[in-house]
Design a protein that fits this description.
By secondary structure, this protein is α+β, with helices and mostly antiparallel strands. It has two domains: 9-39 and 137-310, Multidrug efflux transporter AcrB transmembrane fold, CATH 1.20.1640; 47-132, 2-Layer Sandwich (Alpha-Beta Plaits). 66% of the residues lie in helices and 9% in strands. The chain has ten helices and four strands. The chain has helices at residues 9-34, 42-45, 60-69, 109-121, 136-162, 165-193, 199-226, 236-268, 274-310, 316-323, and strands spanning 47-54, 76-79, 88-94, 124-132. Strand 2 (76-79) and strand 3 form a beta hairpin. Helix 6 (165-193) packs antiparallel against helix 7 (199-226). The radius of gyration is 27 Å and the shape is elongated. It starts with 8 loop residues before the first helix and ends with a helix.
């Protein structure tokens, strides 16, 4: 299997732009709608998330009416598809809902909510209850963003030290490409389906960054090793093509085994890890693509531009004199 990145480089870059541009537009729309690049989940905003499984079909308007009675009208409500056994899952995100304390005699807000839901929709099963303090949520977001920032700075410094300037810049562009691809796709999901990110999303981004850089370094190392043959009837584009084809099978096999595992986890794993596994799957797929096609195509393009700049301008008078 041989891939000619030089011949089709604008196709590879164009394919990336076709995903990046809608993602960047979605990030801008999320800023307008939510005030953040992606809709933030409970981990970052604080509040309570409740998941109930009811044994009958629910109506969204009736759920809203029930919540309005308890002054929870501004809550975010999601209903899953009705399963084969006729049950349906209700996911409720709201401001912090207080549970009964040991010294409390009156019914807590949570108990009142359970009673109203049972009265309106029948028996249910509580799947999960998550409560995050409004103080802890922003702290988690700040810590996650700081971890992401310092990771990016460390990787940029390492790549700049390890490679020449053109190699380093192209690797960093590929890294930024992967981060924005992942963020853009999740911004689209937030706008379309109200998807929210939690602290596991930051973990997924950090993992994807490490995977992407590792793959890019493997390809660039091979290009650097083969550069000793440059000039022996071979252009830099030829060297890059040969280097990619030498590492292609290894890169694809490594990614496929990882993606296969993540795909199985997404399909058969728990609901709580689906966003994390989905982010890992999309990010690793993007990282593999960028290290093979985007980073190398940019490097070849950079070298071609640099070569043209080094060539002295043609003196037309000397050419005419030489012909005469």
């Amino acid at each position: 299997m041989k891939v000619n990145i030089v011949k089709y480089r604008w196709f590879w870059i164009g394919f990336s732009l076709a995903i990046l541009i809608p993602g960047l537009i979605a990030i801008g729309m999320c800023f307008v709608k939510y005030g953040t690049p992606i809709k933030l989940g409970l981990d970052f905003t604080g509040g309570t998330k409740l998941e109930y499984r009811f044994f009958q079909r629910l109506e969204l308007e009736k759920v809203r009416e029930t919540l309005d009675k308890l002054n929870l009208g501004g809550s975010n409500i999601q209903l899953s598809k009705v399963s084969k056994d006729g049950s349906q899952v209700l996911i409720l995100r709201s401001r912090t809902i207080q549970e009964r304390k040991s010294t409390q005699k009156k019914s807590s807000q949570k108990e009142k909510l359970d009673r109203e839901l049972k009265k309106s929709f029948g028996d249910f099963e509580i799947l999960s209850i998550d409560t995050v303090s409004p103080i802890i949520g922003p702290e988690l977001l700040t810590s996650g963003l700081l971890a992401l920032f310092f990771t990016l700075v460390g990787i940029v410094l390492y790549i700049s030290y390890r490679f020449k300037r053109d190699y380093a810049i192209c690797a960093i562009i590929a890294l930024i490409h992967d981060v924005f691809i992942l963020a853009g796709l999740f911004a689209i999901f937030s706008l379309m389906w109200g998807l929210e990110i939690d602290s596991l999303f930051i973990t997924a981004v950090l993992t994807v960054i490490g995977f992407s850089v590792h793959d890019t370094i493997v390809v660039f190392d091979r290009i650097r090793e083969n550069s000793k043959y440059l000039g022996k009837n071979k252009t830099f584009g030829d060297i890059a093509n040969e280097s990619i084809n030498q590492t292609l099978v290894r890169s694809i096999n490594t990614s496929l085994t990882t993606l296969l595992t993540l795909g199985i986890l997404y399909l058969f794993g728990g609901e709580t890890t689906k966003n994390f596994v989905g982010a890992m799957f999309l990010g690793i797929a993007s990282g593999t693509y960028s290290s093979i096609f985007v980073a190398s195509a940019l490097l070849v393009w950079w070298r071609e531009i640099a070569k043209k700049k080094r060539q002295p301008p043609i003196n037309e008078k000397k050419v005419v004199a030489a012909v005469r």
